[in-house]
Design a protein that fits this description.
By secondary structure, this protein is mainly alpha-helical. It is 62% helix and 0% strand. It contains 6 helices and no strands.
């Protein structure tokens, strides 16, 4: 008896189903959008969601979306820089206030100092204080 090789590739309908399910979390709507027959769409969606290759693709798509939605450190620094330079307008189209620009500069300074400390090997929680004691 010849071994059946499991096909881990998704067909086009399954790929569409996975994309839609990752967006909505709704099996019925996702199966309909993928082009499955409306008559048995609930059963079809349930069967699809039990397939390991479908589960893996949905997980991959969710991870990708999550990574895309979270700002990385570079984006944060660029936004703070743009605010500090006055390049970002508020919701009314007005320039950022001086207070907001100063806050952005402070945040940039904190992060720059932290980065410099890490490069030098200085722990973040260490503060050096020099005291000169004089006796009168």
């Amino acid at each position: 008896m010849a071994d059946k090789k499991q096909n881990n590739q998704l067909n086009e309908k399954q790929r569409i189903f996975c994309r839609e399910y990752a967006k909505t979390g709704n099996g019925r709507k996702s199966a309909l959008k993928a082009g499955y027959a409306p008559k048995n769409v609930d059963v079809t969606a349930s069967k699809l969601l039990r397939l390991s290759k479908v589960q893996a693709e949905i997980s991959r798509l969710n991870e990708k979306a999550e990574k895309k939605s979270i700002m990385d450190a570079q984006e944060v620094m660029e936004l703070y820089s743009a605010i500090a330079r006055g390049e970002v307008k508020d919701q009314f189209g007005l320039d950022a206030s001086l207070a907001d620009r100063i806050k952005a500069m402070n945040e940039l300074a904190k992060r720059t100092v932290d980065i410099e400390n890490r490069l030098k090997g200085t722990p973040d929680n260490v503060v050096q204080i020099k005291v000169n004691w004089k006796r009168d």
